[in-house]
Amino acid sequence: MRFVVRRLGFFVVTLWAAVTANFLIPRLMPGNPALALMSRYRGHINPQSLHAIEIAFGVNKHQSLISSYFSFLGNIARGRFGISLTFFPDPVMKNVLQALPWTLALVGVTTILAFVLGTLIGLVAAWRRGGVLDGILPPIFVITSAFPYFFLAMLAIWLFAIELGWLPQSGGYDYTNTVGWTWAFVSDAVKHSILPALTILITSIGGWILTMRNNTITVLTEDYVRMARAKGLSPWRVMWSYAGRNAILPNLTGFAMSLGFVVSGAILVEFVFNYPGVGWMFLQSVENQDYALMQGLFLMIVLAVLTAILAADAATAVVDPRTRDVR
Amino acid sequence: MSAPVLGATDQLATPPVGPAPLAAEIKSGRWADVWRAITRNKKALVGVLLLLVFVVLAIFPGQIAPDDPTAQTYLPGLHPSWHHLLGTTGRGEDVFSQLIWGTRLSLVIALAVGALATVLSVLIGVSSAYLGGIADGILSLITDVILVLPIFPLIIVIAAYRKNSGLFTLVVVLGALGWSYGARQLRSQTLSLRTRDFLESARVRGERKFYVILFEILPTMTSLIVATFLGAALYAVLAAAGLQFIGLGDPNSQSWGTMLYWAQNGEALFAGMVWWALAPGICIALLGASFALLNYAFDEISSPALRVRRLERSRIPKRLPPPTQPSSTEAVLKVEDLTVAYATDSGPVVAVDHVDLELARGEFLAIVGESGCGKSTLLYAIARLLGSPLPGEIVGGRVLFQGKDLVLLEERELRRVRWRDLSVVMQSAMNALNPVLTVADQMRDACRAHSNMSKREIEERSREVLRLVSIDPVHLHSYPHQLSGGMRQRAMIAMALLFTPDLVIMDEPTSALDVVAQRSLMVQIKELQERLGFAVIFVTHDMSLVSHFSDRLLVMYAGQVAELSKTRELFDRPRHPYSQGLLEAFPSLRGPKVRLLGIPGAPPDLARPPAGCRFAPRCPHVQPRCTEAEVPLYSVNGSLVRCVLQESQG
């Protein structure tokens, strides 16, 4: 129980740090971009938009830094991220919620797929130590894990969309389609997601393979694995319940932590593919200097990563009985 | 030490494949050793060569590049030719020249960020662990928060406010956000070092904390620090390229990321200017790969478990097998001429050297000797359980059990013998029981593997064997960590008795317990053995422990049998000088008070065993002839002794 409370505490502290960074960065940067922007816009845009920016930054000329910080926190807590300039006059929240499913479907599914596949391949590679799989895969994936996501995305578009013409080169769906749960739309969306998904899969799977392989090699030296062999269990059972189950423990946490990295990579992939997810919208907001939208999306990304970490904690508690009791 | 923040993850904070164990190897190694390690590892070699090429390009772009990278003097979109190796850009610049000039910024960013992040993670990680208390609490909280913040989006936010961020901003931001992973690892590494002797002694000597950190702690973590640097550099390469690619870098700077930005804007791939986009991407990937390969190779070099070594059988000295001796028919186990070798970097090491032994039904045989004399290797060779962490291989001999040669059995046939007829009890149940399964689970999978017992029957049998070793069956569904040390050990013995096997192999099963618990467990093992009639091979380094329990004693030295006698006989009349030395090392319970003498010196290095008698260098009775030839086993009054002094008696 104490453990759960502490984890939730960590969750809150991290979220607070992210929000505060959001508040402080525009103020602390040389030249105070927040104020500079305000004065740049004053008189050029209508008072409504000006107010939107005010909310986004928590800038208010009648308030001190401290009190504007607290009203900023209060707005965030109530889900008021202000109004997006890009999609004026839609509130930020509406835009974020529109983009989120696309990213969740693409990045979420791909990440889980990469983790599951990578873990399996790594386990088998370590189990067949010195075999073909073990000899070829690690060097290959050391190299692919150093590949820039966006470059691979460009290559994929060039090869499969332009040269071969097999798959659509950008977007999340064909814009002539109407969005909805129809077969035509869903199959079209899936088709559009293949290339970005493959890109993310290829660049992120290597890390899982390597860490799982190395974890397993270490676990295989443990006495309990030898004991399992001495018991005459089937190799399958030894590999699965003894080696694999213990080797995956450090990776569960690593999985959650590196999710931040995957999300980052996905921003670039979505950018290259013009995929209508959070990452693409994030870069749109940067380009259009739509700071309210940018902040909202950033917090959304932080929230997603933190949720994944909590989920990984829960998974660890299920797989590893020691974490349940000791704490 | 304050409670760490990331809770569940903390006990696993040190990466299981951490370079830790061999940090000392690298520390003591000179540059020549480092160089040898690099050249021997192909991945490291490729990584170093790639990096060297880029370093040369970064230093001498003016000499290598044929053109001014910014001069828009050519026709746009030219195809590759001798004049333009990679064609021209959409703005009429030479792609090849841009590529070479771009190396400098990309490399400088990688190295600078790597250095900054490494310095920060060392400072924060090490001092956090070393200072402890509130400082540790705060520093690790900061580390963990930064660790989970999505860095790249944050950098984009920062870069968005500072348009066209130059080199300095990029390095500072990437470095200031990229240190947390390394800091976390360094912290847990330092924590594990804190209680080590050499630090304790430094503290006792009253050395200043700063001095201790700088000269005592840091050198032992060289490999981890290098890994931190390489990891941060790799991240910097990719992140900087990403930022430049989406136009948040300085668009007028010469870098690969910027090239990609212009290529993307110029729709290079659509317009057929393929190399404009491909070349910088490949360079980013190659630079990243060089860091990743180095990182991976360094891991391999510093933790030998990750390397695969092959045993060169041809380098093992051959000897003719002795003629097979007639054996008593009631032998449950007969080991003939068993030889086991390990592959090491300097060639094969013979750890068990032509050992013969025989075990009667229901007999209790104890194997004693110092650590490193091959007794555990012998034990696991008999059970066919070699392989990591004892990566030895049986290179000769036979292990006859129930009329079958275990050495030749296929793994499938072997599985049928295991546990039903031959079970194993290990040194530490804490390590030998699977931490994530309950005792019941671990009994059940053994039962499932060897019988068709129903769920009820398995539960019944499990309770029954627990009662045998006096554990209350309520503990059946506990996890190993929920039991006390003594109970775990008993539970493991109970597990070994599930099928009442013919032979139970025990590897120091009591050494993890205190003296009182040791005694009571020994009494219980003996009692069970007499009641159920299984034979026991019991390895220990504590001769006095088995003096009242074993029928015969096998004294091993340097991989060979030194003496094999009835236990009483050996205690009364030890014949081998090594046996005499071992006996003098333990206090006798009865009898006159004598001075306890150890045996001076240490067992020989088995990679280079001494000629003749292996004990000769430490033997008080050494004679010239001892080192002349291999000493055979002499049979004296039913004992076997490998000592020339017994020649006349034989």
Structure overview:
The complex is a heterodimer of chains A (327) and B (650). Chain A has 327 residues and is an all-alpha fold. Chain A folds into 2 domains: 2-77, no CATH class; 92-319, MetI-like fold. Chain A is built from 14 helices and no strands. Chain B has 650 residues and is of the alpha/beta class. In chain B, strands 6-7-8-3-9-10-12-11 form an 8-stranded mixed sheet. In chain B, helix 5 runs antiparallel to helix 6, helix 18 (439-450) crosses helix 19 (455-468) and helix 19 (455-468) packs across helix 20. The model of chain B is unreliable at 1-29 (pLDDT under 50). Chains A and B meet through helix 1, helix 6, helix 7, helix 8 and helix 9 of A and helix 6, helix 7, helix 12, helix 14 and helix 16 of B.
Quick summary of this structure?
The complex is a heterodimer of chains A (327) and B (650). With 327 residues, chain A is mainly alpha-helical.
Task: Give short descriptive properties of this protein.
heterodimer; A: mainly alpha; 2 domains; 0% strand; B: 650 residues; alpha/beta; MetI-like fold; eight-stranded mixed beta sheet; four-stranded antiparallel beta sheet; 12 strands
Please outline the helices and strands.
The complex is a heterodimer of chains A (327) and B (650).
Chain A: H1 2-28, H2 33-41, H3 47-57, H4 65-77, H5 92-127, H6 132-144, H7 149-163, H8 183-220, H9 223-230, H10 235-247, H11 249-273, H12 278-287, H13 291-319, H14 321-326
Chain B: H1 23-28, H2 31-40, H3 42-59, H4 61-64, H5 95-131, H6 133-148, H7 151-161, H8 167-177, H9 180-194, H10 197-204, H11 209-217, H12 222-245, H13 256-265, H14 274-302, E1 331-344, E2 347-360, E3 364-368, H15 375-382, E4 393-401, E5 404-405, H16 411-417, E6 422-425, H17 429-432, H18 439-450, H19 455-468, H20 485-496, E7 503-507, H21 515-532, E8 535-540, H22 543-546, E9 552-557, E10 560-566, H23 567-572, H24 577-584, E11 634-636, E12 639-641
Parallel strand pairs in B: 3-8, 3-9, 6-7, 7-8
Antiparallel strand pairs in B: 1-2, 1-4, 4-5, 9-10, 10-12, 11-12
Helix pairs in contact in B: 3-5, 3-14, 5-6, 5-8, 5-9, 5-12, 5-14, 6-9, 7-8, 8-12, 9-12, 10-11, 12-13, 12-14, 13-14, 18-19, 19-20
